[in-house]
Design brief:
Order of helices and strands: HHEHEEHE
Largest sheet: 4 strands, antiparallel
Distance between the termini: 13 Å
Radius of gyration: 19 Å
Number of helices: 4
Structural class: alpha+beta
Number of strands: 4
Bound molecules: nickel (II) ion
Helix content: 40-55%
Length: about 140
């Protein structure tokens, strides 16, 4: 168990009220956990900005009827070589949801997502930025 430290923060009353209202809607029962999560999110963004090794979850929606799309998606992932896991859901008659988990330097993950996003038939492609969590 890590040692906990307490510190005081001075905030404008309106800003604090807005923060409290926001974290209540998100289900937080106290400010400490909400602030810890904000700090972790900031460190994760920093890891991505610095090009560190990180985790990414690439989420895509696509029409599997597009010619050669499945083959292209498979080839891109094989050539990339750092996919940890992927998850496929047959959403509707036409559309599929796929989540691809990767561990790599952030710029390589972003580049992979751009290659996938630019394929014809991809309707949506987003990257969830995650940290390996070793330092946060
Ligand atoms: Ni499918």
């Amino acid at each position: 168990m890590k040692k906990l430290m307490r510190f005081g923060v001075s905030l404008d009353k309106d800003l604090l009220n807005r923060f409290d209202a926001l974290i209540r809607t998100e289900g937080y029962t106290n400010r400490s956990e909400a602030i810890r999560d904000l700090i972790r999110e900031r460190f994760t963004k920093e890891e991505w900005a610095c090009g560190r090794e990180v985790l990414g979850a690439i989420t895509l929606i696509y029409d599997h009827h597009y010619t050669n799309l499945l083959e292209r998606l498979t080839k891109i992932q094989h050539n990339y070589g750092k996919v940890i896991s992927s998850f496929h859901v047959h959403l509707t008659h036409r559309n599929c949801l796929e989540i691809i988990a990767v561990r790599d330097k952030s710029k390589n993950i972003t580049s992979l997502a751009h290659r996938i996003k630019s394929l014809k038939g991809i309707q949506q492609c987003d990257v969830a930025m995650c940290s390996l969590g070793e330092k946060i």
